[in-house]
Design a protein that fits this description.
about 130 residues, mainly alpha, two-stranded antiparallel sheet, 4 helices, about 50% helix, about 5% strand, elongated
Length: about 130
């Protein structure tokens, strides 16, 4: 190394300008043009004036929604219908000869007869 004393620095200076004005103005104008173009495009695609012309007064009356007047009674009727189906006899498909029997009777019959093709109790695992 040389026996130079500390390096000589020039006088401190500041940066004359951080950002030039021309690119900032150009980007701002570009964004403004895009916003105006999108507003015109939205007006062309969704013309509110034409919709206002189609809807002429007086408008037809709307029917009121069909609400349940007594939900607990409706639920009780639903449960009673389900219970009647589970505890009664009836046809599922009369042409095909398929009927339903009360659930208790079906469970007793399955316990007594078993499921066809199901391995019997006490035999090895399938």
């Amino acid at each position: 190394m040389a026996d130079d004393p500390a390096p000589h620095f020039s006088r401190p200076r500041h940066e004359p300008a951080d950002v030039t004005l021309r690119p900032v103005v150009a980007v701002g104008m570009g964004v403004g043009i895009v916003v105006v173009a999108l507003a015109v495009l939205a007006d062309v695609l969704f013309p509110q004036r034409a919709l206002d012309m189609l809807l002429r007064a007086p408008l037809p009356p709307m029917t009121s929604p069909a609400l349940q007047s007594d939900p607990p009674a409706d639920m009780a009727a639903f449960r009673a219908a389900d219970l009647a189906r589970l505890t009664g006899f009836g046809w599922v498909d009369r042409k095909g000869g398929v009927a339903h029997v009360p659930i208790d009777q079906a469970m007793r019959q399955m316990a007594r007869d078993g499921i066809p093709g199901w391995p019997a109790a006490g035999t090895g695992r399938p």
